[in-house]
Amino acid sequence: MEAIRLTLETLYDILRNEKKREDLQKLEGTFFHDVVAYLGEKQELLKNKQQSAELFAAGERDKLEYELRSIRRILKEIYERREKKIIDIALNRSKTGSDIIDTSAMLPEEKEFYDKMVTMLNTYRQGILWNIVAGKFPEIVGVGRDEAKNNSNSLPPRVAFSYREDEEAEQDEEENEEQEHAEETTPAATSRVRFIRPMPSFIWKDMKVYGPYDPGEEIEIYPEVAELLVRKGRAEIV
Q1: What is the pTM of this model?
Q2: Which of 161, 185, 209 is the C-terminal boundary of a domain?
Q3: Full domain range(s) for residue 85
């Protein structure tokens, strides 16, 4: 029989780390499997105690029931704290469009949730915000809105294509403004930064892979990337 990896103490440690640290904490890839096995073991012990006629079985049964309630409470809080962090990461991804998003601490099911959340946020951000700022009525096309295809008020393909062009033009304009600001504030073609927190590898707009980087490591990098790293608290300008 495979050994159970979890204990009540390790679950407390996992929860404590999620509470005191801002970043999503790395868990074993087998975490959910281990949780199910651990709960199964406790439930089996409780079942045996309920069927036992031993003198001390009642006290041990009460203890197991208390442990199971504690385990479930801790698991709920771990999930909800990780859920909030993942939603915050997805919201940041949708707002900024940044490629510097570290998802390595997410379990496979959490990564699927994150991907769907980003898709949903992008769909409604584009359908509502970008249409409103362009002087158009909100129009949600895609996720969960197949019925919009049969709506007589739906934007025709020609208008929808025009909307995508408007969005791309707006994004290009924002990128140009950021680049101009970087050129105004940074005389050199690159900025030098020192990492103050670990930085996983990422792909920038030039499609090149950067990193990973360790605290104390210094590099020369595009000013806009340097500003983003500083804003995220990953590095400092040197």
Answers
A1: 0.58
A2: 185
A3: 8-96
